[in-house]
Design brief:
Blueprint (H helix, E strand, L loop, with lengths): L4 E7 L2 H11 L13 H11 L3 E6 L10 H19 L6 E5 L6 H13 L4 E4 L15 H10 L3 E3 L18 H22 L2 H4 L5 E3 L6 H4 L6 E4 L2 E4 H8 E4 L5 H11 L4 E2 L16 H4 L4 H16 L2
Parallel strand pairs: 1-2, 2-3, 3-4, 4-5, 5-6, 6-9, 9-10
Antiparallel strand pairs: 7-8
Length: about 300
């Protein structure tokens, strides 16, 4: 039987939540299934047959909303706490490195530090305070370091819409921001990577987009524009399918079947969004269990994960 590797799980350390509350007056939400005691996580993984889980910081811990010095403090502490909690379970849990794009040089050093501790991927948000940096020379040191370590990137929405006009809507526009703006930022970020020639410079970069890719798989037929690279012209869609994968978090059975058909079996990994609002871990397996051949889906998602993680 194929094993399960979970690309999309979170941990919001209480220490980080307290520090952010002290800095901003607002405490990030901690999922009711989250705990600093990762043996509880392991127990739930055993109950559902999950072999390996990648863990990144909680979605509410977006450090670059803070001044640069505080942002760096938060990502370093978040990575340190995650490393400490993973350490007793290194055969089952792997860390995803958090960065501060307000601190490029220090973030490059953070990749060095966490890679030495066995972290297997890098977490990337699409913007900094509403500004896209992925297509600027400022980001090259980070992409160069990720490329040198041959690490995959996990792309997650920041959920921090900057448009002041949202304030005139109910709940400060939260329903608009969470429904479409976060996914829109991720989509723009991915296409900017292609259009800026990022993959010409770093052809080994591979990126997993969270939560079933947001709206990107639906838009794939519109990626007909051609990138003018050193080896000729290629459609954005071709480059996208070479360098981007999606996890299957947030999909129901019909959506997952569509994603497999649209993206292809080589471009999907398993993701649960555990401790990010999913509920019990078992809930993350429902869409795969409802497929015509669940074992086949398990098999190709595992193969894709192992290829990305070099295991």
């Amino acid at each position: 039987m194929a094993s399960f590797i979970d690309w999309h799980a979170h941990h919001t350390a209480p220490e980080i939540a307290e520090r952010i509350e002290a800095l901003t007056g607002k405490r990030p939400h901690i999922d009711s299934y989250d705990s600093p005691d990762f043996s509880k996580r392991i127990k739930e993984m055993d109950e559902v047959g999950l072999d390996l889980q990648l863990i990144c910081q909680g979605a509410g811990v977006y450090a670059d909303q803070l001044p640069a010095a505080n942002a760096l403090e938060i990502v370093r502490q978040s990575n340190d706490l995650l490393a400490q909690r993973i350490a007793p379970h290194k055969n089952r849990l792997m860390g995803v490195t958090a960065l501060s794009l307000k601190n490029i040089e220090a973030s490059v050093q953070e990749i060095d530090t966490t890679a030495a501790k066995g972290f297997c991927a890098v977490l990337l948000y699409p913007h900094v305070n509403g500004e896209m940096l992925v297509d600027t020379p400022a980001m090259d040191p980070i992409f160069a370091k990720i490329s040198a370590f041959n690490l995959p990137i996990f792309m997650h929405g920041a959920g921090t819409a900057q448009d002041p006009t949202l304030g005139r809507l109910e709940d400060g526009g939260a329903g608009v921001a969470y429904a479409v703006l976060s996914d829109g930022e991720v989509a723009e970020c991915c296409l900017r990577m292609i259009a800026s020639g990022l993959f010409d410079r770093y052809p080994n970069l591979r990126i997993v987009i969270r939560s079933s890719g947001g709206g990107l798989p639906l838009l794939l037929h519109r990626f007909f524009w051609k990138h003018k690279g050193p080896n000729g012209e290629r459609r954005y869609s071709e480059i996208f399918l070479e360098h981007f994968l999606i996890d299957c978090a947030s999909s129901d059975a019909r959506t997952l079947a569509f994603l497999i058909d649209k993206m292809g079996e080589n471009n999907i990994v398993f993701g649960s969004d555990y401790c990010g609002g999913l509920g019990p871990l078992a809930k993350g397996f429902a869409a795969i269990a409802a497929q015509t051949n669940p074992e086949h889906v398990k098999s190709f998602t595992e193969k894709n994960s192992r290829r990305l993680l070099h295991i």
